[in-house]
Design brief:
The protein has 334 residues and is α/β, with parallel strands linked by helices. It has twelve helices and 18 strands. Helix 3 packs across helix 12 and helix 4 packs across helix 12 (309-325). The structure holds nicotinamide-adenine-dinucleotide (NAD).
């Protein structure tokens, strides 16, 4: 941001960017760039995530927490706070609730409050899209979707921008949700087929898993050579989407190593000593060209996308700048 914009923002006060404004201004391409840049900065150690706080608060069955970090390359400092309130749906609200709070890294002054619900979905979709861009075979034609919940439509829209997919195959634990995803595929002009998990693996060149499962949905032997799998649902201890043995035959990449081995998909292969931590490659290394990504058309690649606070800060910072530029932010003095 220029000095004049900085002083303008200071004189106007703290900016507020609503959920509606985020939806209006935050496109997939901006999210992709922001997330790719922050993964690159994390691998250079110029951006780092602080320890995550996540607590069951003993009220409304809610899980509440903070994800925070600092990106020295992007000059973005702040936190995302929120969590999961399972009873919200009955109140006409989404169960996941979050807000991003940005601070001026030069002074510590509060800079912006940005709605985090829509941005969470966009940044999570951008994360798997970054993995597809860097790791999937260029000739990938069939996209497999395991999961058809809230995040899945965002995942589908972002993924199809990375390769010339000709078809989408899907499996979901709750079949009644599948038509929502099918409708998006139709809008995108892609044939859509609901299949078994095994059939999905037999057909798909790229697979996205985005479920809240606690046991493997995909067996190692179902995956064909050359497949790229983005495991996006496992973000908590105990969750699992794929056979831990799959990580012994796949080349494993992640957004952040510390999360991958504790709350990500790799937690199971690590705790069972099937793979070593040193075998997991931060995707930022591939983006920066310091480590290879896919090295053959037969290799299986697996991205363990655990979701880091810096992704939230990256997209929220872009949203705050765009809202400022377009005159869509509101302001208050603290
Ligand atoms: P949602 O509640 O809208 O959908 C849940 C999905 O999981 C549905 O497809 C549902 O059918 C499936 N599911 C539920 N129970 C299952 C089971 N026992 N076995 C298999 N599938 C089951 O949730 P959402 O917002 O779409 O989020 C999906 C997952 O992604 C959640 O686990 C969430 O925590 C995770 N998530 C990860 C990130 C990240 O950055 N990695 C970000 C946001 C959400």
């Amino acid at each position: 941001m220029s000095n004049s914009q900085d002083s303008l923002q200071t004189s106007k006060g703290v900016s507020v960017v609503s959920e509606d404004v985020c939806q209006e201004i935050m496109g997939r391409s901006d999210a992709f760039t922001a997330v790719e840049n922050v993964f690159a900065a994390m691998a250079k150690n110029t951006a780092y995530n602080f320890d995550v706080i996540r607590e069951a608060i003993g009220h409304e069955d809610a899980l509440y927490g903070f994800k925070s970090g600092f990106d020295r390359d992007g000059m973005v400092l702040g936190l995302k706070s929120g969590g999961y309130w399972p009873g919200n749906m009955a109140k006409g609200l989404t169960n996941h609730q979050s807000t991003v709070i940005l601070f001026d890294p030069d002074t510590g002054k509060l800079k912006s409050l940005v709605g985090g619900n829509y941005l969470t979905a966009v940044r999570t979709a951008a994360s798997s899209a970054v993995s597809i861009a860097h790791l999937a075979r260029k000739d990938s034609k069939v996209l497999g979707m395991i999961g058809a919940g809230h995040q899945s439509t965002f995942q589908l829209r972002a993924a199809v921008e990375q390769r010339d997919f000709e078809k989408v195959v899907c499996w979901n634990f709750h079949p009644e949700q599948i038509p929502n995803l099918a409708a998006v595929a139709e809008e995108l002009g892609l044939p859509f087929e609901s299949v078994t998990r095994e059939e999905l693996c037999a057909q798909a060149d790229v697979i996205i898993t985005i479920t809240s499962a606690f046991e493997a949905l995909i067996e190692k032997d179902w995956i064909k050579p050359g497949t790229h799998i983005a495991c996006m649902g496992t973000d908590t201890k105990g969750k699992q989407e794929v056979d831990a043995q799959l990580l012994t035959v796949a080349k494993v990449f992640t957004d952040e190593l510390a999360q991958s081995i504790t709350i990500g998909e790799a937690q199971h292969a690590i705790s069972r000593k099937l793979i070593q931590q040193a075998e997991i490659v931060p995707i930022g290394e591939v983006i920066n060209g310091t480590k290879p990504g896919r090295t053959s058309d037969t290799e299986i690649t697996l991205f363990d996308g655990t979701g880091v606070g810096l992704q939230d800060l990256a997209v929220a910072s872009v949203a705050a700048d765009l809202a400022e530029e377009k005159g869509l932010a509101t302001y208050f003095q603290l």
